[in-house]
Amino acid sequence: MFRPRPDGAVATIPVEVEGRVVRVPAGASAAAAVLLAGLTSIRDTAIGGGERAPYCMMGICFECLAEIDGVPNRQSCMIAARPGMRINRQSGARPAPSGEIE
Ligand code: FES
Q1: Is the CB of 61 under 6 A from ligand 1?
Q2: What is the CATH architecture of 12-91?
Q3: With left for phi above 0 and alpha for psi between -120 and 50, is residue 37 left, alpha or beta?
Q4: 0.70 exceeded by the pTM?
């Protein structure tokens, strides 16, 4: 089902993970970029500060929450990496949104 291209070429795109530019295969998720960058964690838990990293890679565990392009709490395994995307560590809980609840 998954075969390498005959010419061996894999198109890559540059993304920034914790300030470091990493090239990832086109179509890879932001969580894959975190793992390809060699990080062992991408967030700290709100209670206890335990380190977490992408785990299930399919949107179930929420261990991959990260700040992506300045927006916290993004589920990085469900977001395709884009050229120039900035992925950063998320520490603790994000601030609650202000405004009215409908
Ligand atoms: S790695 Fe499990 S939800 Fe993203």
Answers
A1: yes
A2: Roll (3.10)
A3: alpha
A4: yes
